[in-house]
Amino acid sequence: MDKMSTLEYINQMFPTEASLSGVEPLMQKIQSEIRRVDAGILAAVRQQSNSGTKAKEDLAAATHAVEELTYKIREIKTKAEQSEMMVQEICRDIKKLDFAKKHITTTITALHRLTMLVSAVEQLQIMASKRQYKEAAAQLEAVNQLCSHFEAYRDIPKITELREKFKSIKQILKSHVFSDFSSLGTGKESEETNLLQHLSDACLVVDALEPSVREELVNNFCSRELTSYEQIFEGAELAKLDKTERRYAWIKRRMRTNEEIWKIFPTSWLVPYRLCIQFCKKTRKQLEGILDNMKEKPDVATLLMALQRTLEFEDELAEKFGGGIQSREIGNEIEEIGRQNNSQSASDIRKKYEKKLAAHQGSENEEKDGNKDLSAPGAGFNFHGIISSCFEPHLIVYIELEEKTLMENLEKLVQEETWDVEEGSQNNVSNCIFRLTCMLTHHVFLNNAKLLLNNVLPLFLIIKRSLKRCSALTKSQTLYNLFKVFQRVLKAYATKLFGRLPKGGTGIVAAATGMDGQIKTSDRDERVICYIVNSAEYCHKTSGELAESVSKIIDSQFADRVDMSEVQDEFSAVITKSLVTLVHGLETKFDAEMAAMTRVPWGTLESVGDQSGYVNGINMILSSSIPVLGSLLSPIYFQFFLDKLASSVGPRFYMNIFKCKQISETGAQQMLLDTQAVKTILLEIPSLGRQTSGAAGYSKFVSREMSKAEALLKVILSPVDSVADTYRALLPEGTPMEFQRILELKGLKKSDQQSILDDFNKGSPAISQPSSAAPVGQPMAPAPPASTVPAISNPASAGFIASREDVLTRAAALGRGAATTGFKRFLALTEAAKDRKDGPFRKLFNA
Hints:
This protein is 69% helix and 0% strand. It is mainly alpha-helical and 847 residues long. The chain has four domains: 26-170, no CATH class; 210-323, no CATH class; 331-358 and 392-503 and 521-584 and 828-847, Tetracycline Repressor, domain 2 (Orthogonal Bundle); 590-606 and 616-816, Tetracycline Repressor, domain 2 (Orthogonal Bundle). The longest helix is centred in the N-terminal third of the chain and has 108 residues, at 23-130. It is flat and about 155 Å long. Belongs to the VPS53 family. Keywords: Endosome, Golgi apparatus, Membrane.
């Protein structure tokens, strides 16, 4: 307690002077407390002193106990060591006795086995000398087992002597067996009744000998059996291709007559199987020699007959012995050619894929089976192709015959084609069959089964038959060569279709395609062209299915090379040219109406009336042709045709206005009325053709093209002082030459025109030169006579296509909205055709 605490305590105990009277009693109380505390401390010290002494005593006692325990453990360990030594002494004597017993037992067993071995070898020697094969076979097994016990003693002279003796006995048995088997097949088996049983017992001996002995015996037997075959069929009389069937008859007769005799061989030896393998190898070698040594090409009929008989024989062997994996069924694959997969019913699709799944699982099982031990006879040998493959290099004559036959049939079909497509004569045989097939198979072709030419289906039927014939013979190089023949035949057919299209043409479509001369098409010609389009579309699709079927049938190393894209390109070119020809045919029909338009006295018309006669003529032409075309063409090609037609009529109508002499205000109003009527007629074409798909895009396209003619007429109607501004506003892409021609159409004099032209050229530097190319597909009429129009340096303004690249680029744009791959494909082909040196599309671009 510090000083301040002491003072506070005293002040607390004695707050007043009167309280000091209690000092004495407090002092006594404190002293009494001090004495009590001292007494407690003293007692605690004494108690602690006594506890330390006891702890020392306890520690000493524990130490003593540990020492005593250590002594006892040491004593136990000593006694254990003594016991161990005693046990070892006892066991040492027991081990000696055990070793002695083991050696004695081994010696006794070895001596006993040696005795048995010596006796067995002697007995085997006697049996071998007497040719007692059945007993010798059992004895061989016993000696082999006894010899196995003496492998560790092979260096002992006696054992070596016995092994050499046993080896010589086995050699004697082998020579006896081979000698006895040499009489098999010589006729002795019929004289000696026990010979077959004797040889059957000899087979038991062979099984007891090394496996190499059995292999040698079977090979010798097969070679001996085939010796006569080689002698017979190597002679000049039978070493011919037309005698091939007799080879197979010989081996089948041999196997049939000797079936009972060959039963002496164990089934596991597979003697007939091995004999057939050697026969096939020898036959292949001889046939290769015959084919290679022919001075002239083999007769196709003889070659195919030999190949057919060879394939039949291989099938028989594969069925009899197994080990051959049959190729996939090809009939169904070939029958799929020409069908429309995109319209199959759900059940057809389900059945198709169930069949594919089953085939896939079957192939997996075959693969698992193929992973078995191939060293076993028959486990992995494939009889298919073992002989027939030697015919492969020589089947070129067969392919040549097939190509000749196909080409002759093609020529015949084309010559017999009546092209009878007059309205109401659509019930030809080919189309009746086709429609019936569509109904039976639930397939639809070209939207409601459009009509085909008579020769299309027979052509593919002939191709299918040819494919079936060849695939039944081979699925290797020859089948691939035949596929290339199919390509050439189909290309030739595409060329025939090309040749049937009307020729000539001078309009804008002709300029874009390179066709020379004017195309004139009758109503019958238009129907023929539609049939050609439908037939080409069918060929395009079916040729792809043909390639798919061939790729499934043909060997895998050729499957990736099977491609019909070039053939499909040919038919795409036929479709493109046919549609362009249709457009140009209609364009030619418009010539008279366009000429009539220029002969109307537009400058002297007094009033605006109904639409002009040439508009009615255009309407009659379209009303006559469009319904027929719409009913015959598929929607996508009809849409392409409409786009091409719009790209021709609109620009041509625009340029035809420039060919008129003079147009008054009333004449311009009448012509504007006619323009709107023509526009309405064009807009109604999709509904006229009963095909409205893509009509919205077509309407926009027509409106855009015809709006140029309307804009031109509005410029003509504008006042002279504002004609330049109106021209720039409504026809921003117009040229100065066109503007000058507009001034002439308005009837302005040369002197008045010049000042307006000067002002126009000053205000329009960007268009002072004509454009280098006409818009896509805009067929421009020839330029007006030189007396009425100034000389034009650039042919584009006069209605010619200056750049084929621009034409092709814009022609591709005409397919807007076409989502079909085939449609886009032939547009792309058109673009790429410029760079090709040959081919059907090149014909469209010959300058």
